[in-house]
Amino acid sequence: MSILNIEIKAKCSDPTEIRNILNSRNADYKGTDHQVDTYFKAGNGRFKMREGSIEYSLVFYDREDIAGPKRSDVIYYHPRKTDPVKQQLSKAIGKLVIVDKQREIYYIDNVKFHIDTVKELGNFVEIEAIDRTGEIGAEKLYEQCQKYLKLFKIPEDDLLTNSYSDLLLSKQISIRESSIEEIVKLSKVIPEFSDLYSIEEYKKRLIGKRSLLLVADFEGKPVGFKVGYEMSDHFYSWMGGVLPEFRRKGIAQKLADKQEEWCRENGFDKIKIKTRNKYRNMIHLLLKNGYNIIDIEHKKDKIQNRIKLEKTI
User: Is the full-model pTM beyond 0.85?
Assistant: First the structure.
């Protein structure tokens, strides 16, 4: 079953106040559900198995990562609890993260409300304006979301851009400055780097220039890196990568965010980067982060075209 949601997620400092507002408007309380969501390593969007006593389903959804009301296209499948779906998916594509929460569920007409207490994260409120038949439309759903956003008096700073799974993964990732030697060692186990740069090449490029060498640790293990250095009128983001088994965890995004933060603090107003046409995930990430394509170096094999991008910060 495929449906359209317009939804918001926000931190909630006072769940009792939200509960009182819903009760004052005769919201239909469905109960409190202990839900365990197992997220899998999907190629795109988010894919999870929800196990609860009220809600039990396999869910794929593709949602914008923005604050405030956002569109989410959702596909549900409701397996029997005896079906080994979770075990099959865990073996086939692997688990990403597990979200454990207590969820109070309310409805007012087509709008669903959640008051969540999420293990390791805290309290949150969600508003989901739902169109199950295609008869309501996105515009009306946005209006409904905005109505309850105002009613609950949710501050803009409390709005979340991403999911509980992203927040939990982010807690497991740390970014630190590193050395050329560690970067070169890490690059050797990233399969895309067939023509490795030597320690001497790194030193040649970086000598006498302001540079930043970052390593990402996941639960204490080095799993990704990003290296850049100053040019005459910009910061050049030169090399970077993440070990295959640790992709889709937000590590490349955290590295990019840290690099951008450092550039601002050090007086750079522009970042440039060059990648290859075949690295589609990298291009997608850069475009999502506000980079613009400024040039293309054409090669005989189009998949090897060099894509040059730039971002003003």
Answer: no
Distance (Å, whole) CA 33 – CA 219: 30
Q: Which two tokens stand for residue 81?
A: 């609890």
pLDDT, residue 68, reads 82
Quick: pLDDT tens for 67-106: 788 898 899 999 999 999 999 999 999 999 999 999 999 9
- CATH label, 2-169, candidates 3.90.420.10, 3.40.50.170, 3.30.420.100, 2.40.320.10: 2.40.320.10
Instruction: Report whether pLDDT(203) > 90.
Output: yes
Q: How far apart are CA 98 and CA 40, in angstroms?
A: 9
Tokens of 161: 């851009």
CA distances for 93 relative to 41, 48, 86, 90, 193, angstroms: 6, 12, 11, 6, 24
Superfamily designation of domain 172-312: Gcn5-related N-acetyltransferase (GNAT) (3.40.630.30)
